[in-house]
Amino acid sequence: MCERVTNVSVKSHNVARCQKQEQTLISIADDCLLVANENILNVPLLCGWRRHVLKRIYYTCPCGKRFSNMKQIETFLININSRLSIEQFSFEIEIDVKTKPTNQMFVVKNDLSEGREMVKIPVIKTTNNIKLQQFEYITRPEINTNIVYSSLKNCCNCTDNCQNVSKCSCILRTFFESKLIHKSSKYSNGKYECKRLFSNSYSGIYECNESCHCNSKCKNRVAQNGIKFRLEVFETEKKGFGVRCVDDIPKGSFICTYTGKVLESEDPTETLLRDETYTFRINYVEHMIYLNNALEKDYLDKTEFIIDGFSKSNVGKFFNHSCDPNCKIQVVFINTHDFRLPDLALFAMKNIKAGSELTYNYNIEKDSDGKRLCECGTKKCKRIKLM
């Protein structure tokens, strides 16, 4: 059984001592994670850290050093080579970091991902009105390698896990392409800050990739590292299945990607088998050309692709539309920098309380010819027709 480590009494801070103590406590926490599937934000507390809630939040590490913001903690974790990640901390006063108990009633599937994700994703059903469609769970889009322009991918040579952003070619590409599209600095800040995303990058975010010299702790690797927050698929009243969070999620946090089979939109061999309910059109080349005509000459192949999540997908396929969403889609480039084939990542637009349904805006036109009306139930609902 796991007990929280809270009584760490140290008069002065010592990095070496803190590092040794933290590593011992992390071993305990790792065992707890395997058993209890902890809230990611509670892990530092299991490792001897304290989170103090006053008028503002501050943390103290196992040896007593005090931290008042995310950047301070990020730097400290790097300096002591900690196995903790900056994603496991939150300075939002309305965020509760305690692990919420999970309701085991009505669980029809213990883990939707069948072990493919780092956290279990249970499926909750309270009636027999709808059935969970069988599909193969995949964590990455399935792409035919023959359609990828692999020569478009670049990589960085950083040996400091990209702490010096002025030298990381991947981070710089995000910055300069965003600048190219929007001259105003207001729109050029769409990059990760302590592994969170607070403003959209209209050029897409170029994460470091398998060819880069940095490792998985790199500050520019977020979406590729998988789901960290606990989620569950549940039966909604009017919208079929949906997804909700088990614990509080801070604004800007990565939640999951939308995966599926990547197909040419007009592929005649696939069109008849397609269920439009789980189809996501990738029109990013068109979007980029619209924003900046200078890019058109570089992408003469304007083949349109879709992500078909019917037979192969992940938990992202169950996110419902809302006219007033709490999540947003951000285009991310990971193992290819081909504009036609981005990854689609979901991030929290606001602080989200435990038990809330997670939604994003499908961006469907109001006069679309969909078959069912929006049932998001928000005050901003436009009653658009969904697919």
Automatic annotation (TrEMBL):
Coiled coil: none annotated. GO terms for biological process: heterochromatin organization; methylation; negative regulation of gene expression. CDD domains: MBD. InterPro entries: DNA-bd_dom_sf, Methyl_CpG_DNA-bd, Pre-SET_dom, SET_dom, SET_dom_sf, SETDB_methyltransferase. Keywords: Chromosome, Metal-binding, Methyltransferase, Nucleus, S-adenosyl-L-methionine, Transferase, Zinc. Residues 154-226 form the Pre-SET domain. GO terms for molecular function: DNA binding; histone H3K9 methyltransferase activity; zinc ion binding. This is Uncharacterized protein. It comes from Leptotrombidium deliense. Gene3D superfamilies: Methyl-cpg-binding Protein 2, Chain A, SET domain. Residues 229-363 form the SET domain. Pfam families: MBD (PF01429), Pre-SET (PF05033), SET (PF00856). It is found in: Chromosome; Nucleus. GO terms for cellular component: chromosome; nucleus. SMART domains: MBD (SM00391), SET (SM00317). Residues 35-98 form the MBD domain.
